## 1
Amino acid sequence: MTAPQRLTDRKREAIVAAAIAEFRENGFEVTSMDKIAATAGVSKRTVYNHFPSKEELFAEILHQLWASSVAQLDVSYASDRPLREQLRGLLEAKMKMMSDANFLDLARVAIAATIHSPERAQDMVTRLSKREEGFTQWVRAAQEDGRLNCSDPAFAAHQIQSLLKAFAFWPQITLGQPVLDAANQASVIESAIDLFLAGYEVPPSRHQ
């Protein structure tokens, strides 16, 4: 990698770090690209060179948080491993993300920013949904392998992730409840797996 590229990467990282700090402190609406540039120690033009809009910058931050939680996770389906074991790995990664203070703070900012802007809300939901496609692909692969019986893999994937969010995301976002401790996280994960497998797992005797 050349020196100019490294400098560009450092500037990009500085912009993202500054944006996280400003969004958490002041919210989406109040934060300006000028303020982000000043905090990052770069020109406003540099910020726009990396991110065409404030929405793009905010979406990138949320994407990075999600990506960091699954970076070490292999979401590919394995026909020779128990479904419960694979699901546990997927849900533990999801739980790790939802326990991240940065992510929770920025999720609150995102929700506040979208309340009065349905178009912005739809855009952010669409962007984040793309980050959850790996789970859907896993469900589809297990279905094609004859181990899950579900007509809509995307719905089933959304369903099990929503079970986590009901206990480990929405109460923290909307009611200010504390992040679940390790024991409660494990309990929520196992009960979600129980419900999912009870509804969709093909009994071993029927699985060819």
## 2
Amino acid sequence: MTRWIGMLAGALLVLALAVSTAAGQAAGGAVRTNDFVARIELSGPIGPAAAEYVDDTLNRATREGATAIVLQLDTPGGLSDSMRQIIASILAAKRPVLGFVAPEGARAASAGTYILYACQLAAMAPATHLGAATPVQLGGENPLPLGNAPSPAGSAAKPVSDAEQTKVINDAIASIRSLAQLNGRNAEWAEQAVRGAATLTADEALQKHVIDLIAPDTEGLLARADGRRVRVAGNELILKTAGLPVRDYAPNWRTHFLGIITNPTIAYMLLLAGVYGLVLEAFHPGALFPGVAGAICLLIGLYALQLLPVNYAGLALMVLGIGLMLAEALAPSVGAIGIGGLIAFVVGSIMLFNTGVPGYAVNLGVIGGIAFSAAALLTLLLRLVTRSRRTRPFNGDAQMLLASGELLQPVDAGGESWARIGGEQWRVRCESALPAGARVRVVGRDGLLLRVTPA
């Protein structure tokens, strides 16, 4: 059995290396193509996955020689930390970023307004809107309005007495005003969007100089942006975008996966599942499944709400997965510990290692090969445990009645003697007289005395 396990592990390792090499050759070396515009579509809630996607794609488009980058927005808002990561990536970009609220019917609300203000050029499609940029605490009260700012629906202003909420509002105002001043846009309205949750349509935004232009689509945006002056990394550039081809940079499967688990609804359910799983395990020790599932869900939920950075969450899941798989190997269960550990290890590996970072990437073939090897060894271990549990017992009355042996000393009829049975010496009683060396079979047991008959 040990030889077969070694051969299986070796074959899986060779397979993982082969997949890794093939994938590395397929992905090796990005092709540089000049004179094109990269397009990034940022849709849905803004969370850690969206921030990572924008940062990676901006860097990738720059490396591949994009002339400009169109950041197409359609978002209701999201987490403040993720928004600030996206803004930092835009400001650090070495290519002009054109913010574009599209298609028709899209919006750049809340965090999307800040991101649009951070772009070197801001545009909107018809029938779109932006604004309502007041920060709202998760699970807390809306801090608007502040001071004597007008409240929605014309109701009387409600002063805010909480110092923490006041600081959050003032910090948000300073942030969006600085972005407005950086790119020469309407800073007064930006402050209104934060204080009073003001909103604007595309035409209104153009009139108030909140955006630079209105375009029906990406091609129209590039045509109308051509010749405009923008400031990128401290240098003034003239956009030359008319007629350039557009190359889409769609999110990969990893971004889609992280986007699903960071969805606010999914994050809420994961947190609930994690808490309830740990509570059930505490009230019913040894159930295993609730505790394992709860720990995994809680770590993913904390990452989804950005209470844990992605590197810490991924590392914690990997450590948890390895620990659970070792626990399964040392104290085999019904498989709940091992399967949970395998899931935690794979999810943690995906979260921790970003394969899009040049020079710092773990190929998915390696992760898949290790996960497959662990799954195969776990399956083999569970099979061996199941087989051992199905075997007949080697002690007890049921097993003893099937045993036979030989007399070590002669025995008289109805007398007692000694016999070797199952490699052990037992005191035996026989109703028949038998010489030493005779074969006997066990028919009963009275404590440490066995009743035997001639075999």
## 3
Amino acid sequence: MHLGLEGRRAAVAAASSGLGLAAARALAAEGARVAICGRDRERLASAAEAVGGGAHPILADVGSPEGATAFVREAQDALGGVDILVTNAGGPPPGGFASTPVDAYGAALDLNLISVVAMCKAAVPAMRERRWGRVVAITSLSVRQPIGNLILSNTARAGATGFLKTLAREVAGDGVTVNSLLPGSHATDRLRELNDGDLDRVAAGVPAGEVGDPADFGAFVAFLCSVHARYVTGSAIPVDGGEYAALL
């Protein structure tokens, strides 16, 4: 399927590894010009090489509003504008209600909620002016089905989902779509860290019988950015091999 992304300019956050890197690679494979960010210079350079297509590496930490805004601004400068924004960030530390102090919530909200707001504030106004834009947020299945021992992520990403849904309705008439993808268990460093490297055990709990391939997830990101997905907005879509158990 021809996605119509040739020459589009994409900023993909936290793309030095994992699902962000997979999204950047998929967009570049469709002819988009891509800027990525990460916190480690060497890993970022390696990721840019893996993305190919002259991807622009930008050293940035989206864990603060200033860092998130700076990433988008630098991507706009490097690419001459941003048509596609993929928001993404690492997860906060694990923990439950009893073990997580109140003062831990601020950093988690900055990382997984305020970063999304800041990146959208920096990128979406120009998209509205051009009457074409795509925002795809990588969040988590936890916004539909909270994950045990991840109370910070559950809380912050649910807030981001509320923001994204509201934004989607405000900008739909301007040719800008806003969607989020809710990954379940994918073969990423984060999943390995949370499960002591035992992905076979994780796979046993997935109806599909395996953990997700980040490349497949990246392809779904690219589709949501395509001309074919122009009527899809305000959606929060699980990509999870059947893990999400509820009817709606």
